[in-house]
Amino acid sequence: TMLETFPQLHQGLGLHDQPGAAAPMGLRVLAMLRDTATDPQGQAEQSLLWPVCASLQRLGMPVLVLDASQGESADAPGLAQLLQQSAWQARTGLHPDPRHSSVAVLPARQGLELLPLQARQAGMTPMQWLQRHVRGYAIVMLYADADTLARNLPGQAVHPLMVLPEHGPRVLGCYRQLKQLAMHAGLRCLLAPLLPNPDDLGVTSYDWRRGQTGARSQAEDAQRRQSQIDALLRCAQRHLGHAPGLLPVRLHHAPDLQRLALQLLNHAGSVLPHGGQDLAAGYAPLPASHAWSH
Predict the structure, then answer these.
(1) Phi/psi class of residue 212: alpha, beta or left (left: φ > 0; alpha: ψ in -120 to 50)?
(2) Is the distance from CB of 271 to CB of 30 less than 8 angstroms?
(3) d(Cα 108, Cα 94) in Å, to the nearest integer?
(4) Looking at residue 46, what is its pLDDT?
(5) Residue 93: what pLDDT?
(6) What DSSP assignment string belongs to 110-166?
(7) Within its chain, how far is the Cα of 262 from the centroid?
(8) Which residues of the chain are under the pLDDT cut of 70?
């Protein structure tokens, strides 16, 4: 599980009774594609998602992950419940729990369906509306499929990250997602091909299945993977007019993960507080604290 793999991450977060100021630069918006066809359990994606978010948090920027792979429920409240608060509750918004330095996560499958609808009714973009509910966070990471990202990120300069597993991308499937984000939200993506770590290669082994050395099999796999990536880039360039950026990453390799985190930050969207006004000026603050976890 996520917590077993990254025990330093704590998923608890709180609604606190003291309103806090938004980050001076507003809310930074990041996104990662959830591709159930390529990665049904999300293992490859989450192997990057959590350490990258932890790297950003270590920069002193509180991070909130909106995880659309998880649905909200009475036992695991999330974004939907946050958006459905009454106006007097929403004034204080969501803030990091000062007792924890870890990355906060909210289930968000229903909430990211509701967010664009509420935002439209308020005459705002989805991220402007979200910013009013997560005032204490400097960064929000949307982890969702292409359709959900396209509906929630119109007008944002964010470059969503598409993780390509070690066995290589599904060229047509990946291209369709790139096209959907480009056509429906004007978004360009970054591609993060996962590379095998040198320690995992085992170049002295013999590949009995293929009847050749392990080194030769690995070279063939790398060549096939690169051919698939090149085909995806050419397809995007030809039909969309641009090729996504390429950021190869070795898992568990700290310099690569830190570099990726900074690149995502450089390609983040941003939301300034809407008119600098409170969502519900004149209402009383939330009278009690609530701890949410899932």
Answers:
(1) beta
(2) no
(3) 14
(4) 92
(5) 64
(6) THHHHHHHHHHHHTS-HHHHHHTT-TT-SEEEEEE-HHHHHHH-TT-----EEEE-T
(7) 14
(8) 1-25, 86-93, 97-101, 168-169, 197-204, 207, 210-214, 217, 220, 274-294
Q: Which two tokens stand for residue 8?
A: 């330093």
Give CA–CA dist 13/104, Å, rounded: 6
190 forms beta bridges with 161, 245
Whole-number Å distance between alpha carbons of 195 and 172: 21
C-alpha closest to that of 89 among 138, 16, 23, 140: 16
Tokens at residue 186, please?
A: 């004007």
- Number of residues assigned to the chain: 294
Contacts of 19 (CB under 8 A, 6+ apart): 91, 92, 93, 135, 285
Buried-exposed string 68-102: b where 16+ CB fall within 10 A, e elsewhere: bbbebeeeebbbbbbbebeeebbbbbbbbbeeeeb
Could you tell me which of 143, 161, 153, 91 has the C-alpha nearest to residue 116?
153
Whether the CA torsion 255, 43, 107, 245 is positive or negative: it is positive
Q: How many CA atoms lie within 13 A of 208 on its CB side?
A: 0
Q: What pLDDT score does 214 carry? A: 67
Do 171 and 59 meet the contact criterion of CB atoms below 8 Å apart? no
Query: Residue 108 pairs with which residues in a beta bridge?
Result: none
Tokens read off for 119? 């935002």
What is the three-class DSSP state of 106? strand
Which two three-digit tokens encode residue 167? 């066995």
CA distances from 232 to 177, 235, 245 (A): 11, 5, 11
Per-residue pLDDT at 277: 38
